[in-house]
Design goal:
The chain is globular and about 50 Å long. The chain contains nine helices and 14 strands. It has one domain: Metallo-beta-lactamase, Chain A (4-Layer Sandwich). The longest helix is centred in the C-terminal third of the chain and has 15 residues, at about 185-200. A six-stranded mixed sheet has the order 1-2-3-4-5-6. It starts with a strand and ends with a helix. It has helices at about 35-45, 60, 65-70, 145-160, 175-185, 185-200, 210-215, 225, 235-250, and strands at about 5-10, 15-20, 25-30, 50-55, 75-80, 90, 95-100, 105-110, 120, 125-130, 135, 140, 165-170, 210. With about 250 residues, the protein is an alpha/beta fold. Bound molecules: zinc ion and fe (iii) ion. Zinc ion binds next to loops.
Length: about 250
């Protein structure tokens, strides 16, 4: 028994992510970017949504909470910040566990993109749902948090097993790859970026990625090795901050 995971594109560049515990048949949606699309996909699969798992409060993640709850009665779980825009039934913090039938998801505090951003780790399924924290070859912008906070959050994700599948909330990878090539000459990065461009040219998703692949090629996780070319820094979090700032200003 395990966890089925269904990924589908929605809105302009979001991914909808539905998960289903095989033992119980209970299903959940990670975030609610587009309620109509989520309900249609769940219907098509014959999955009954018992939970919403919010990662953060942004409208492209929690904006569909009310509509999904109305249609399904799903329990809405997320960080307290979600109540800024949407209903929440259970507020969770780092270390809390969320059951889905026989599957257990553990909450990791991954603040930085927003002040209360969390991720959900399913160790038995070797999968982590990271919202807008870690992207394939990228990471979330620092809208509410500091470089220190985001570096610490990324460090928690990087500490998961290399074969952990990483489900990001957006398809930003081609743009991230153009930036990666501008700051990193490592051959593994070049090879990966070529694969990313080929996948996107054929309309294939680049999500999920894996912790091992990100550790080897993601310029934000590799920031301490790369930041020397961008400016002076003291410590890994400042190195990360330099790479983040360079990406914010990157026109690629
Ligand atoms: Zn966001
Ligand atoms: Fe987002």
């Amino acid at each position: 028994m395990g966890l089925d995971i269904h990924l589908f594109p929605c809105l302009s560049d979001n991914y909808g992510i539905l998960i289903r515990d095989q033992a119980s048949g209970l299903a959940a949606t990670v975030d609610t970017p587009d309620a109509d699309a989520i309900l249609a996909e769940a219907d098509r699969l014959g999955w009954r949504l018992a939970r919403v798992l919010n990662t953060h409060w942004h409208p492209d993640h929690a904006g569909g909470n009310a509509a999904v709850k109305d249609a399904t009665g799903a329990e809405i779980v997320g960080p307290q910040e979600v109540t800024r825009i949407a209903p929440l039934d259970r507020s969770v913090v780092e270390g809390d566990t969320v059951p889905l039938g026989a599957t257990t998801l553990t909450v990791i505090d991954t603040r930085g993109h927003t002040d209360g951003h969390i991720s959900y780790y399913a160790p038995d399924a070797a999968a982590v749902f990271v919202g807008d924290t870690l992207f394939a070859l990228g990471c979330g912008r620092l809208f509410e948090g500091t470089a220190q906070q985001m570096w610490s959050s990324l460090g928690k994700l990087a500490a998961l097993p290399d074969d952990t599948a990483v489900y990001c909330a957006h398809e930003y990878t081609a743009s991230n790859a153009r930036f990666a090539l501008s700051v990193d000459t490592d051959p593994a990065v070049a090879a990966r970026c070529a694969a990313v461009f080929a996948a996107r040219a054929e309309g294939r998703p680049t999500v999920p990625t894996s912790i091992g692949l990100e550790k080897a090629t993601n310029p934000f996780l590799r920031a301490p090795l790369l930041a020397g070319a961008l400016g002076p820094f003291h410590g890994d979090a400042e190195a990360f901050g330099l790479v983040r700032a360079a990406k914010d200003g990157f026109k690629g």
